[in-house]
Design goal:
CATH topology: Heat Shock Protein 90
Oligomer: single chain
Order of helices and strands: EHHEEHEEH
Radius of gyration: 16 Å
Strand content: 15-25%
Number of domains: 1
CATH architecture: 2-Layer Sandwich
Helix content: 25-40%
Number of helices: 4
CATH superfamily: Histidine kinase-like ATPase, C-terminal domain
Structural class: alpha+beta
CATH class: Alpha Beta
């Protein structure tokens, strides 16, 4: 099952970032300012304890920043990655020992960042006793320029794929076009 969500009921939110770590609003670093973009990020860790959510979020945001992402894009990446990893922690290994979560990030061209979060858990299975509000998938879809969630075909588990424009203006242009 592949989903492409466009959930207008979840408007983009801005998250505060300490001024010492911010660039001027809407400015991202060009490829020329990043002569050596970091190699792709790949982390595979146990989905327990829940502190892994913050750890992986920080690593992906640091990678996004090194890839030239604007502050607005870093904010969107932080929220979407938090939601995806939280879903793994809460749902993927229900009734089992905590398993692994894999987070990968890379630039797919000069203007986009790809992030993938996968697990070896139950897959997309309805859960009527869910402890959450059920807003995570909608939030991920709203934060990313492109979003998909699929059951793995090679093994048990789920893959969340997120694609983000590195430039804040690209995100704003796309959001404006979707409203028309």
């Amino acid at each position: 099952m592949t989903s492409r969500c466009s959930c207008s009921e979840f408007p983009p939110r801005s998250r505060a970032v300490p001024p010492s770590t911010r660039r001027p609003r809407g400015k991202s670093l060009s490829s020329a300012e990043h002569p050596a973009v970091a190699p792709p990020l790949a982390r595979r860790v146990t989905a327990d304890p829940p502190a892994v959510v913050g750890e992986l979020r920080r690593e992906v945001v640091t990678y996004a920043r090194s890839a030239g992402a604007s502050d607005d894009t870093c904010d969107a990446v932080a929220l979407a990655v938090s939601e995806a990893v939280t879903n793994v922690v809460r749902h993927a290994y229900l009734g089992e020992q905590p398993g692994l979560v894999t987070v990968e990030a890379r630039r797919d061209d000069d203007t986009h960042l790809l992030v993938s979060i996968s697990d070896d858990g139950r897959g997309l299975v309805p859960r009527p006793d869910s402890p959450g509000l059920g807003l995570g998938i909608g939030l991920m879809a709203q934060m990313a320029d492109e979003f998909s969630i699929t059951n793995r075909h090679d093994a048990r588990g789920t893959i969340v794929s997120l694609r983000f424009s590195l430039q804040a203006s690209d995100r704003a242009d796309q959001e404006g076009a979707e409203l028309q």
